Amino acid sequence: METDEIPKGKLYMIPTILGETEPLEVLPLAIKRAIEEIDSYIVENERSARRFIKKITPRKSQDQLQIFLLNKYTEETLLPEYLEPCLEGRSVGLLSEAGCPAVADPGAVIVRLAHTKGIKVVPLVGPSSILLALMAGGLNGQNFAFNGYLPIDPAERRKAIKTLEKRSRDLGQTQLFMETPYRNEKLLEELLKILHPDTLLSIATDLTLRTEEIHTYPVAQWQSGKTDLNKRPTIFSLLA
Fold this sequence. Notes:
This protein is 35% helix and 20% strand. It is α/β, with parallel strands linked by helices. A 5-stranded parallel β-sheet has the order 3-2-4-1-5. It has a 5-stranded mixed β-sheet with strand order 6-7-10-8-9. The longest helix is centred in the last third of the chain and has 18 residues, at 154-171. The radius of gyration is 20 Å and the shape is elongated.
């Protein structure tokens, strides 16, 4: 039986670099191939997305790119339009601002929508600061939780830190979290004041960059030293 139905394109989830480094030092060739073939992208920031695409495929025409913005200002009513190319037989790339799409990053809503429309979702391999920190921290990689950003309010933040430490102690579970880079130093100060001296604290900074640092010590040992985290992307992990 013949059908005139157009095969659907796919939604490719495309990781990007975590900072200023050569893309093909940390990204597999599959990402270059995907970007060479895809002209429609869902991105958080158009300027940085175009710069990344140009770095991966310098010969690709920027004029032919179709860019859809997905950030906290995007109206949900616009999202079905973003997947129209897939319904017309053309693949779309969901491009992260840094690391893996939809992981501590916008994108989950468009992925869910793709599933409801029967569009195949293809996750590509690339750097995830969360997993890299977990791999290199030496804490429990069998049982862990990523908690995103902690509250900004000082009282709520103190409560959250105590809750994470208790959960880690009760479950033997590594607790991972992050902060806006310019507030890293303040968060570290609070962690060292609140956490038990024996709690293990792992700090992974500038992952995949030349300035990468990953250290794991008991809180008491962190209290006796000094580290510079200001304006440097960092993942914090603790195991009580």
